[in-house]
Each structure stands twice: as C-alpha cells, then as structure tokens.
Write a structure and sequence with these properties.
The protein is mainly alpha-helical and 83 residues long. The chain has one domain (11-82). Helices cover 77% and strands 0% of the residues. It has 3 helices and no strands. The radius of gyration is 19 Å and the shape is elongated.
Length: 83
C-alpha cells in the first residue's frame, strides 16, 4: 500500500501523478511510488517517471514471456529428438 506520495504544489500535476499510479498494475505500485519520489527529489516530473517505469516493466514482462515460451518449445523438441 502506498503510504506517501511526493508533495505537489500544482493540483493538475498531482492529479496526473495519481492517474498514472492508478493505471500502473498493482504489483508495481510501490516501485512506481518510489520512482515518483526519486523524480521529485531530482527535480523531474513524477508523473512522467511513473509512466516511463510502467512502460519499462510492461516491455520487460512481454520479453520474459516470449523468451520463456520459446525455451519451453525448444525443450519439448529436444525431448522428442532424444527418443
């Protein structure tokens, strides 16, 4: 559960950050909140940092699924040829 978000003086920027966090999958929300804090402390846009983080995680998961599926198929072919 996200306990604290970076302080935002602009209501519009705060709304964008909350929206980006809401669109982030639940398993990644804590990490996304940390990304928001890091962006805030370094002077960058927290909402953009959360969005970038979520995109990076989606790409990573998509790549992992593709590689894992291919390895299973290759493993099945090796077993057939071993007989």
């Amino acid at each position: 559960m996200i306990t604290h978000l970076p302080p935002m003086t602009d209501a519009r920027a705060a709304a964008k950050l909350k929206l980006e966090l809401r669109l982030t999958p639940g398993v990644d929300r804590e990490d996304a909140a940390q990304e928001a804090w890091l962006a805030h402390l370094t002077g960058h846009n927290p909402a953009r940092a959360v969005n970038t983080f979520a995109q990076r995680e989606r790409r990573h998961r998509r790549r992992q699924r593709a590689v894992g599926g291919r390895a299973e198929v290759l493993g099945a072919k090796e077993i057939i040829h071993a007989r």
